[in-house]
Amino acid sequence: MAARAIWKGQLKLGTTKIPVKLYSAVQDKTVRFHILDEKAKARVKQHMINPDSGEEVPSEEIQKGYEVEPGKFVILTEEDLEKLAPPPSRDIEIVEFVPQDEISQQWYDRPYYLGPDNDGNKEYFALVEALNKQESEGIAHWVMRGKYYAGGLRPVDDYLLLATFRDANEVILADQLPKPAGAAPTQKELAMATQLVEMLKGEFNPKDYKDEYRQRVMEFIEKKAKGHAPRLKPVKTKRQSAALDNVLAKSIAALKKEKRAA
Amino acid sequence: MARTARKQQPAAEEETAGARPFWSGTLTFGLVSVPVSLFPAARGGRASLRMLGPDGQPLARRYYAEKTGKDLDADEVVRGYEVDKNKFVVITDEELERLEPEKTRDINLTQFVPADSIPPLYFERGYFLTPASGSQKAYKLLAETMDKNDLAGIATFVMRGKEYLVAIFSEKGILRAETMRFPDEIRSPDDVGLPEKKSAPAATVKKFEKLIKSKSKKQFSPSKLGDKQTDDLLKLVKRKEKQRGNVVRVEPEADTDNKVIDLVQVLKKSLGAKK
What we know:
- The complex is a heterodimer of chains A (262) and B (275).
- Chain A is an alpha+beta fold and 262 residues long.
- In chain A, 25% of the residues lie in helices and 32% in strands.
- Among the domains of chain A are: 7-28 and 85-165, Ku70, Chain: A, Domain 2, CATH 2.40.290.10; 187-232 and 239-261, no CATH class.
- Chain B has a domain at 9-46 and 90-188 and 222-241 and 259-275: Ku70, Chain: A, Domain 2.
- Helices cover 25% and strands 31% of the residues of chain B.
- Chain B starts with 10 loop residues before the first helix and ends in a 5-residue tail after the last helix.
- Chain B has 275 residues and is α+β, with helices and mostly antiparallel strands.
- Chain B contains 7 helices and 14 strands.
- In chain B, strand 4 (60-65) and strand 5 (71-72) form a beta hairpin.
- Strand 4 (42-49) of chain A pairs antiparallel with strand 4 (60-65) of chain B, so a sheet runs across the interface.
């Protein structure tokens, strides 16, 4: 089933404008629960109360405030907040390009596909091809639903993927942090650890990974809905410790044995 | 991040988590285990606003029963899954805990892949891993080995009532976990229904390639654009603070949980840096 576009805009690249539609590239499958009133077995509602009096405060009386210091709030009105919103625009401006894989994973927030807005948009597919050939990722700026966005534009399977970035003030980079304290590993340990990870090395195959827990929870819910929930045993945890090189040697030996058996 | 709804979970609580690790557990590769703590690699928004009453008193969100209008305490609500319209199956915390697959209680790095081989659309959220006391050497060994060989480690594990697929990266001697979406949560262009590929005129491709080259930079410099809105808000707050009638004062809240935590300081301490 084809997905619905959530936004329309145009890619601005120099003097070229390419009309595009934005689609979410992800679909969250987290098991979602409702909060229920235990007695009534009914959905609960939420409201805001004054914690001192326990009284409900109706929404028309609620103000928004920014806490400048403990207990001191500056009130911001709806008009204030409206004025802070960026001017609406449909332009996704490509400001520059960087090599693909130059941007740390930490920046990426939400991915969207961009689809050509009118069929047979040759410039759209020309841009995909050009980005592929140059192994390049575009840095885009745009305004969507009252918010500024920056994001990375890169080709995925002949189409364009636009992933939003987190705000620069929010991301903590490894550069800002000290190297961890403690003794450095020895050359022997490094050689053994390298041998170990090389044995576990492979291609990233996303299909190998399933949300087993989600599956177990859903199966349990189905059984419980029919009135026969299985008894669940408490889980145990285990711990072990030994000298590092000893454990490394054992790991390598175990993997070798596994490979021979396979 | 634990998006599975928890009983009575005020939004403010999620944002202030930080001084204590988000999660503590064990990272393993082969038979080597490295006890670690997890801290978010991103701070919450700086411009979070509080809901206030008419006299400026900070408000609290409460659940209430629709029929009686009575407020409900944490022990009066349960978690339910809607199997049919308005038909719920109640699931307890204990059940969720007992359903956790045993093998995924540790971050068990079963596979290592080239660090730049994972497409960006998988990444969800970053967490720094810091060594627990006594595990510094094994931590450094793993970080250095991954860095030298340009590898990322892949694992699945369960944290706070949800299973995560993670990639562990090593940068500047520090391990970072990026939680990833599971493959069935990712749509393909086909799933979305994007139109069939059309061949592009070679001249247009050339034109774009030229443009890309002329606007290319070697390094990524983070855009400040997203921060502009927050900066503007903070400027407005400063301006209004000086004017009469815009400021309310109330008794500061007693719970220290609401204190702003400097995540970078927490991380520095946790990595064992000397002061």
